[in-house]
Description:
By secondary structure, this protein is mainly alpha-helical. The chain contains seven helices and no strands.
Amino acid sequence: MKLNLDVKVASSQEWIDAVMADFNAFxxxxxxxxxxxxxxxxxxxxxxxxxxxxxxxxIATGIEELExxxxxxxxMAARGIPLSHSIxxxxxxxxxxKLCHSGRNERFLDRLLIASVVETRGxxxxxxxxxxxxxxxxxxxxxxxxxxEAKHGHLFVKLAxxxxxxxxxxxxxxxxxxxxxxxxxQLEIRSALH
Length: 194
């Protein structure tokens, strides 16, 4: 059983060029994304404490994302790059969230599948960042993150399958992959993960 779908539209060369042209800004955004990813996993625990089957995986994911934040922060500190003073709104995630259903169960499914799509896009982009690195340590760092994001992309589909029929999950996931491809192509190119 496949637990996620690949992105339908590859990230552009213009995007990776922008990232590599201002890598410090990318690192600041990356740190923000890891903080938000940890908070998102824990928000599922807070909002759905009755969904006991998925709580251990969500806690583990929240911790792992926080560890990623710590790793990025240490990298930034070593380079003298400060954290951002405030975490800005992510236009990519905001556009996806706007398309969520409003009913409790439907929204729960949508939020899990959005998390899968976001993690899958993150994996694709971290692969590009890894491959663009000349420094072997930075190449390795982003390769490890790429593998982790791909794993998380699978995890959120697996979590959805605890509560929803397979055909419903995969049908809605396909819909989200289509919407994500439309959104990613409309985003302003900047030195940021999304």
